[in-house]
Design goal:
This protein has 5 helices and 2 strands; from the N terminus they run H-H-E-H-H-H-E. By secondary structure, the chain is of the alpha+beta class. It has a two-stranded antiparallel sheet.
């Protein structure tokens, strides 16, 4: 609700001071599936990519923006375990943010998987 208020021109400080500021406007579970109106976006990827879908417990205080090179960039390599990388990132976030629960999902997309030169 707070973000919706901001998109309608309300000052962010006022929007997040509302009692309902942190209520979800679209959520699976409390309503039937006709209630949720997802945004759909198509992307064309030209390079290997790592997508991170996470809750604010992980991304608050610019954690992802400030530490992506240390915690995310190495995970572009197929040899790196996404599971171990996620555990490392969540441990860091618990120490860095520590005020909220953390939910996160990684999706690694490889444009050109590692191939042997003999396969050419």
């Amino acid at each position: 609700m707070g973000q919706r208020a901001i998109q309608n021109g309300v000052d962010p400080k006022l929007a997040y001071a509302r009692p309902d500021a942190y209520q979800l406007t679209q959520a699976l579970g409390p309503h039937n599936n006709k209630y949720v109106q997802p945004d759909i976006l198509f992307l064309e990827l030209a390079e290997d990519s790592l997508f991170l879908l996470c809750s604010d417990g992980l991304c608050d205080n610019d954690l992802v923006e400030d530490h992506w090179e240390t915690y995310l960039l190495p995970l572009l390599k197929s040899s790196q375990s996404l599971n171990k990388g996620m555990i490392r990132l969540i441990d860091f976030a618990n120490n860095y943010n520590g005020h909220d629960n953390i939910t996160a999902v990684f999706v690694r997309l490889k444009i050109r998987p590692k191939v042997n030169s003999q396969d050419w």
